[in-house]
Amino acid sequence: MLISILVPTFRRPHHLAEALDSLAQQDRSLIGEIIVGDDSPAQFHSDNRAAIAASGVAALVRHVINDPPLSNYPNQCALGRAARFDHILILHDDDQLCPGGLAKLAEACADETDDSVRIWFGRSEIMDEHSRVDPVRTAAVNKEFGKDGPGEVRSVREWSLEHAIPPDGFLIARSTYLAHMLGARDGNVGDWGLSVRLANSGAHGRFIAEDVARYRVHTESLTNLGRGVDAHIMFELTQQLKVSAPEHIEGRDRLLREFVEVATTRYLRDGERSTAWQCFLSPYWHWKRRFSPRGIATLGMLLTPAFCWNWALGNRGGRIFRS
């Protein structure tokens, strides 16, 4: 098996160097290519080239500079289209693979006997901006996402309801990824959209009860630097998740209740006023929460005339509200 490893990067040469160093510690016989999709401004290109040259895997790297930049998730999708091998693994530039992680995923895929399995993933260690792994936080996250038990196969629907499938560090067939990577509206939560579309296709996923990747929690993440997580689009995508069993319906409704409050204000911020009202009046906003301080503040924002928002947020240019 040869794997295309896809590394989208954006103005973080220091983290890119660490991500590539983690790839240098993998079984080289499994790596068909490493494609670095560079969305960085021009002043970062030389440092990114230097990080690649010093990585120990430079001979395997294709450095693709996006001009103009594509933005994070479209960059990742472009890498999927450019991949040359039958299986791909996405590694964000601020994350890492654990030593031997690629081999564990590849072995599970090669030994797979269940034709319904379309994605292979394991546990992720949580590290800080200085690449220090936090074992306490790691254990808590694995428990929260239902990954503190033995390895098993479950439907992607079930894994999605626990947010168990990570945004990167998983192994998937290129054909499967291309078929499900893009939806009509993914924003910066395309990884969640991928899980929802895989779930709706009836796919299953195999969880490997071992550490295969390291996920970095830090202030330089793209969502922290930009518009934040598109919670309103996560809300929409979750509504699209097809469920029928009572426990799955409850699981989906739990996620919708989790997203709905932030989604309402995001719709407002992005000028989707009527959708914000629909969100606020949906059954996922519990009536008690509507009378909470946050609920009252949200109602106040909904009742604020559009021209006031346009004046206050005039730096965005033009009218921000549409009906």
What's a concise summary of this model?
Pfam families: Glycos_transf_2. Helices cover 45% and strands 18% of the residues.
Helix content: 40-55%
**How many strands, which pairing sense, and closed or not: the largest β-sheet?**
9 strands, mixed
- Derived from helix and strand composition plus strand pairing, the structural class reads alpha/beta
Order of helices and strands: EHEHEHEEHEHEHEHHEHHHHHHH
Shape: globular
Average of per-residue pLDDT values: 91
Q: How much is the radius of gyration in Å?
A: 21 Å
Number of helices: 15
Span between termini: 52 Å
Instruction: Report low-confidence residues grouped into runs of 5 or more.
Output: 222-226, 315-323
> How many β-strands, per DSSP?
9
Beta fraction of the residues? 15-25%
Can you put this structure into words, describing what you see?
Pfam families: Glycos_transf_2. Residues 4-117 form the Glycosyltransferase 2-like domain. Strands 1, 2, 3, 4, 5, 6, 7, 8 and 9 form a 9-stranded mixed β-sheet that branches. This protein has 15 helices and 9 strands. It has helices at 13-24, 45-53, 72-82, 101-110, 135-144, 156-161, 174-180, 190-200, 222-225, 231-240, 246-269, 273-280, 287-290, 293-303, 306-312; strands at 3-9, 31-38, 61-65, 87-90, 96-97, 117-127, 152-155, 171-173, 204-216. The model is unreliable at 222-226 and 315-323 (pLDDT under 50). The protein has 323 residues and is α/β, with parallel strands linked by helices. Helix 1 packs parallel to helix 2 (45-53).
